[in-house]
Amino acid sequence: MKILRYVKIKNSYGLHARPAAMIAKLLQAFQSKVYFIYLKKIVDARSIMNILLLEAPQHSLIQIVVEGEDARETMDKLLETFEMRFGD
Fold first, then answer.
1. Rama region for 3: left / alpha / beta (φ>0; ψ in -120 to 50; rest)
2. Active site residue 16
3. What are the pLDDT digits (tens) for 6-45?
């Protein structure tokens, strides 16, 4: 199963080190492949460094692509984390 969604980055500092670490840690519990796309950059969301390479600031719109057997659960958890602004 493959799911695509767009999400707006709401936290004040964008996808900096703390949110990147939270995402990478969250994804350890899932099997699906996860990619973030922003300004033609495509990165593996399991890597903190890759997420930082996006340089996505507050209010940017990124695309999340999740592919695998637990794609729905993975996407739901990711969207929830983005909505909570990474605890910001």
1. beta
2. yes
3. 999 998 899 999 999 999 999 999 999 999 999 999 999 9
Catalytic residue from among 16, 56, 64, 65 = 16
Which residue bears the tokens 């973030």? 36
Distance between CA atoms of residues 9 and 84, nearest Å: 10
- Exposed e or buried b for every residue in 37-63, given b needs 16+ CB within 10 A? ebeeeebebbebebbbebebeeeeebe
pTM above 0.85, yes or no: yes
Q: Give dist(CA 88, CA 70) in Å, integer.
A: 27
Nearest to 10 by CA among 62, 58, 76, 72: 58
Domains within the chain, CATH numbers bracketed: 2-87 (3.30.1340.10)
